[in-house]
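BUG: 3D viewer hangs when loading the predicted structure for this chain

Environment: internal workstation, default settings.
Expected: structure renders.
Actual: progress bar stalls at 90%.

Input used:
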Amino acid sequence: MGEVRGDLDQEETGEFKEKYSSSEVLELLREVYPEPMDATGVGDRLDMSRRTAANKLNELVDDDVVATKKIGARARVYWLQPEQAGEEPTH
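Structure tokens produced before the viewer hung:
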């Protein structure tokens, strides 16, 4: 097995690949839907750093799969978009 650097694993080829995928975060959000989660909670549940969890959550926000809201001076929560859970959005 190769070296580990942050959220990357070094393969035998010397190239680094992602150790964690956004799909793992997405699956967790589907499990807890409709409850929101913060990056710390995601990181704790998936055994990754809060920073890595926040990066993966923000990738899903950029892909319009997850919504987010700032809830304090430094706190932010994330939740699955209703369409991703098989529900119709409410407007």
